């Protein structure tokens, strides 16, 4: 089973339609698809793991507690504190939650019988990016005031005659490009990884069923590529979770800075 569909029912080559699955059952609402199910599953995995790990904390931590503390400590010290500074410690819970949720959701792309990340659907990275967007706008307006933050985000320390050119560029970057690219980066990587795994997996079956005897052994090469890409996808899954969290911290640092 690939991407929740029986191989015999999947046309080859795979298409963009594979990212828009039907409802879980015939009478279910359109939004209740396997992506929605995997989204809530990712939330449940993160919540349950941390609740179980900290249910009875020990001075000498268990393996579960050690891993949970290590993940939070990595985000707290390596992202929140290093990028934002001491003020960033108050954002550590949000950043750690973001990192864990994206990481688990991304890893679904290589889990048997799931094999697709909810982040391969643009709606979910868009919501995550909008959450970050709302957070750093709120923090910016809170720290600098409405007019002060607009000036902080768009006015560079440059000669006055350069401002007509720089102002629209900075406004476009701060208020449109940052959230858009944040969502597109995560979506594009997970979508591309899913499609590559589909191509090589289904390509192996297509070659195996080919009429030419010379093409049948190539199916093994196609499946070997699937295995190699699966390990590569695991690396990409972790990297994209880290990049999304790091950029979120970077945008918050820019918002909270005294100067542009």
UniProtKB/TrEMBL annotation:
Keywords: ATP synthesis, Cell membrane, CF(0), Hydrogen ion transport, Ion transport, Membrane, Transmembrane, Transmembrane helix, Transport
Entry membrane topology: Multi-pass membrane protein
Annotated localization: Cell membrane; Membrane
Ranges annotated as spanning the membrane: 35-54, 91-114, 120-138, 186-208, 220-243
One example GO MF annotation: proton-transporting ATP synthase activity, rotational mechanism
Main location: membrane
Family indicated by similarity: Belongs to the ATPase A chain family.
NCBIfam families, per database record: ATP_synt_6_or_A
Protein name stated in the entry: ATP synthase subunit a
